[in-house]
Structure formats: structure tokens, C-alpha cells
Write a structure and sequence with these properties.
Strand content: 15-25%
Shape: elongated
Mean pLDDT: 84
Largest sheet: 3 strands, antiparallel
Order of helices and strands: HHHHHEEEEEE
Length: 191
């Protein structure tokens, strides 16, 4: 008898230290073991505790669902407006191009117009670099299908076979990803 009582005491001690069932179940078990509560009272206390645990579980699930929805909504907003800083910077370039077009209509000085357009071109290049978008070097480099797109081949005395002899349009990379490959003409060597 004393051995089973000591086992019960160990169970009560381990359960109360873990606080797995809560205070009312611990009291019910303790009362049952000491003979203070009837089996019906113990069952009622355990059912009450079970209802409390189910309620806590439902609240936790609701909180988790609300958190998931909030994160999803925040992520959608972040993705939707992620390019906003870039667009603001590009709008400045657009404004400067509009000013250059207006100046071209009122001035016959081609040199100043060319200087203005080159300044706008440098401004745009600076904005692209600010957002980690850089031109891919192509001319005189070995053809690389990962960053170059061959649009033609032609003989060239200046460039060896398999080398880019002409860049039709510049390619760009953002970080390590190709945004647009360089459109190039590849040398076939002396032909």
C-alpha cells in the first residue's frame, strides 16, 4: 500500500512540476488520492480542465490564423510596393528627359542638347547602379550564353573566333541574376 502511495506521490509531483494539467486537475488528483474528492467530483474537475484546455487551444489556433493572415497581407503589400523607390528615382530621369525635349524645341544648339542628354544618361546609369543593376561587359569577351545572346555571326580580323565582336544592345545584371542578356554578334575569326 505504501509503495503504491509513493508512486502516486511521484506522479503528482512530476505532473505538478510540469503543470501539464493545471491547478484544478492537480487538486482533483490530490483530493482523490487523499480521499477528499469523490470519483464524480474528480471526473467533473477533469472535464472542466479539459474544456479549459480546448478553449485555450481554440484561442491559440485563432491567434495563429490571425498572425498568418497579417503576415500574408504585409508580404503582399511589401511586394506590391517594393519597386516604389526605383520608380521615384526613374521619374526624375523622365522629368529631365522632358526638359531636354523642351530645350531641343527652343534651341538650335545641338551640342548643348547632346550634353544634356548625356547628363540624363549618366543619371539613369547612376540610378541603375544604386539598385545593383550593372551593365554586362561584352565587347572583346568570349561568348558566354549565360549572359550573352548571339544575334549573328560575322568574320572579324580584330577578334578571334568565339569572341564578341559587336554589342548591339547592352545586357544588365541585378546582383547575380541576368535581367537582360547582351545582344551580340560573335566573331567567326578571319573569314
Amino acid at each position: 500500500m505504501s509503495e503504491s502511495k509513493s508512486n502516486r506521490d511521484e506522479i503528482l509531483d512530476s505532473e505538478s512540476s510540469d503543470n501539464m494539467f493545471g491547478d484544478s486537475v492537480d487538486a482533483a488528483l490530490s483530493g482523490t488520492l487523499t480521499g477528499e474528492l469523490s470519483p464524480e467530483e474528480t471526473v467533473a474537475a477533469m472535464e472542466q480542465q479539459l474544456a479549459e484546455l480546448k478553449d485555450r487551444e481554440l484561442k491559440a489556433q485563432a491567434e495563429l490564423e490571425n498572425f498568418r493572415k497579417r503576415i500574408l497581407r504585409d508580404t503582399e503589400q511589401t511586394l506590391k510596393y517594393a519597386s516604389l523607390p526605383l520608380v521615384r528615382d526613374v521619374l526624375e530621369v523622365s522629368d529631365n528627359l522632358s526638359r531636354a525635349a523642351e530645350a531641343a524645341q527652343t534651341s538650335a544648339d545641338a551640342a548643348s542638347l547632346l550634353a544634356g542628354v548625356r547628363m540624363v544618361q549618366q543619371q539613369l546609369k547612376g540610378i541603375l547602379e544604386k539598385y545593383h543593376c550593372k551593365a554586362i561587359s561584352a565587347l572583346g569577351k568570349p561568348f558566354d550564353p549565360n549572359v550573352h545572346q548571339a544575334i549573328a555571326q560575322s568574320p572579324s580580323a580584330e577578334y578571334p573566333t568565339g569572341t564578341v565582336s559587336l554589342e548591339a544592345s547592352a545586357g544588365y545584371m541585378m546582383h547575380e541574376r541576368v535581367v537582360r542578356p547582351s545582344h551580340v554578334i560573335v566573331s567567326t575569326g578571319n573569314g
